[in-house]
Amino acid sequence: MLLNNTLDLPDNTTLPGTTSPAMPFVFVGDEAFALGEHLMRPYSSRGLSIARRVFNYRLTRARRVVECAFDILANKWCFLHTPIHLKLKTAISAVKAACVLHNFVRERDGYNFEDSLSHSLESHLPSVVRGHRQGAAVREHFTAYFMSPHGALPWQLEAI
Questions:
Q1: Is the pTM value of this prediction over 0.90?
Q2: Count of Cβ atoms closer than 10 Å to residue 41 Cβ
Q3: For a tag site, which of 40, 74, 87, 138 has the least CB within 10 Å?
Q4: What pLDDT, in 10s, does the model give residues 86-120?
């Protein structure tokens, strides 16, 4: 579904503080995944520039946040600990229901979602570019953004 662009992803959007180009929403992965327009993976670790090291750090940090969030969700809804033996449409509905119920329980218990927005847990390309090349162009744009005044974190250079 990800490789053949059949996912129902939001429309491309500009990154905060920028006006163009509109960037696709992406999934974060590790070195085991192939780079694609909607799937970011780190640069290989040999001879990286500072900007590429920052990108790898930011991507890895985002992946850890997602993994921690999934662990929290899976610990509440145990069916997420094992392969889901349902039809795809039913599995998608079950995971969405778990997310909604999780958020409902957190809200009921006094968790303020807006508070999490103020604390960072840790970022339209030409149609002639396809596959890996398009993914590489998206990754390069994120790399440049993470080094720009709008996308940089004050402490990111100390973390690499």
A1: no
A2: 20
A3: 87
A4: 999 999 999 999 999 988 888 888 766 555 544 44
Cis peptide before 21 (omega within 30 of 0): yes
Split at pLDDT 50, 70, 90, the class of 36 is very high
Contact 9, 24 (CB under 8 A): yes
Structure tokens at 154: 């004050």
Q: What sign has the CA pseudo-torsion 85, 89, 93, 98? A: positive
Buried-exposed string 105-118: b where 16+ CB fall within 10 A, e elsewhere: eeeeeeeeeeeeee
CA distance 142 to 27: 13
How many Cβ atoms from other residues are within 10 Å of residue 147's Cβ?
A: 17
The answer to whether residues 47 and 36 touch, using CB atoms and an 8 Å cutoff, is no
The residue written with tokens 């995971």 in the block is 95
